[in-house]
Amino acid sequence: MTTHLQIRGLSGALGAELRGIDLSRPLDSAERKALEEALYRYGVLCIRG
């Protein structure tokens, strides 16, 4: 199943909001890479359903 991952930086210097990812199933390699890159870039991730 393909998800439509959206990453939006939050106001201020730290954090991003993630939408469109289903964490109830294993991540594919593209999703894993996107999460790793977002965590590296923003430092904190707020994951929405």
Describe this structure as you would to a colleague.
The protein has 49 residues and is α+β, with helices and mostly antiparallel strands. It has one domain (6-47). The chain is 29% helix and 22% strand. The chain has one helix and three strands. A three-stranded mixed beta sheet has the order 1-2-3. Helix 1 (29-42) links the parallel strand 2 (16-19) and strand 3. It is globular. The model has no long low-confidence stretch (mean pLDDT 88).
List key phrases describing it:
49 residues; alpha+beta; three-stranded mixed β-sheet; 1 helix; 29% helix; 22% strand; globular
Topology overview:
Elements: E1 6-9, E2 16-19, H1 29-42, E3 45-47
Parallel strand pairs: 2-3
Antiparallel strand pairs: 1-2
- Roughly how much helix do the residues carry, as a percent range? 25-40%
Oligomer: single chain
Specify Rg, calculated over alpha carbons. 11 Å
Q: What is the number of beta strands?
A: 3
Strand order of the largest sheet: 1-2-3
Give the termini separation: 15 Å
Brief write-up:
By secondary structure, the chain is α+β, with helices and mostly antiparallel strands.
